Amino acid sequence: MLIINGGDGTVQAALTEIHNGGHFEDDPPPVAVLPNGKTNLIAIDLGSHGDPIVALERLVLIAQSDLSPHIVARELIALRCDPTSHPVIGMFLGGAGLADTMLYCRNKIYPLGLPNSVAHALTAVALLTRMILRLKASFLPPEPSLLQISLRPEDSISGRYALFAVTTLEKMLLASELSGSGRGRLKLVAVEERPFSLLKAFFANMLGKLGGRRFPGVHLEESDEISIEGDNTNLILDGEMFRTQVGRPIVLSPAQPLSFVRLAA
User: Fold this and answer.
1) Are 177 and 171 in contact (CB under 8 A)?
2) Which of 76, 89, 125, 200 is most buried as measured by Cβ atoms within 10 A of its Cβ?
3) Where in the chain is the domain with CATH 2.60.200.40?
4) Which residue, among 45, 96, 90, has the nearest Cα to 263 in the 3D structure?
5) CA distance linking residue 48 with residue 150, whole number of Å
6) Contact 229, 151 (CB under 8 A)
7) Per-residue pLDDT tens over the stretch 160-206
8) Cα(176)–Cα(3) distance, rounded to whole angstroms?
9) Are the CB atoms for 234 and 99 separated by under 8 Å?
């Protein structure tokens, strides 16, 4: 197995090199991930959390026996800024208000040296303060810009989104699973910049009902191709930042699946 030690950004860089570099031809080894970064959504999805040394010890034990019970296939996202470029490969993309909030946390909260859990809670409080009180200040996350999202030739949505995410991970956002409609391998959640829409999505996700019903201002979609366009809107694919431009959409599509090693939850 190939073990990656780091957060989502490190995993994304390794997956991109595996996909584009041809190092293993058509037979790459199964990938395991240690939770050793600021953001570990991919590791958590694979059942790897807590102390990375403990996770490594468990992987060493697994490697000495039959790997097959621990092997899972995961779909990957290929991001292209233009049709001729090599794709960047990842598993979770955050955009609009979510990306702005992630950058706010990275640039203004993490430097305070707080534990990750405290930093994330403080960021959430700052975001809700801006949304509910409609405040604009340099010490708060910025207001998201307008985003145009095309899912299929006949289907598109646009608006200002407090939360926009595309993923192939089984567990979406918090702990609930997004039930699939079978219309595509990329799962999309977009929540409009309204406090009640965000709260409805939050509680539905906590109750495991996010994919089971529709809520005003909450968009749940699946597609095999997603085109994203906007005026300088931030997008973050597993730690790497991209910025949209008018007339030059960023296109997401499924990449070749890889095998991963999943630890027992």
Assistant:
1) yes
2) 89
3) 92-256
4) 45
5) 34
6) no
7) 888 888 988 765 544 445 555 557 889 888 888 876 676 666 666 66
8) 27
9) yes
Letter for the amino acid at 185? R
Q: Of how many residues is the chain composed? A: 265
Query: CA-to-CA distance for 184 and 252, rounded, in angstroms?
Result: 12
Paired tokens of 58: 């468990």
Are 48 and 19 in contact by the 8 Å Cβ rule? The answer is no
Contact 249, 225 (CB under 8 A): no
Lookup result for tokens 């030690």: 5
Instruction: Identify the residue whose tokens are 């199964």.
Output: 30
Topology at the third CATH level for domain 92-256: Tumour Suppressor Smad4 (2.60.200)
pTM for the full predicted model: 0.79
Q: Which H or E element spans position 62?
A: helix 52-63
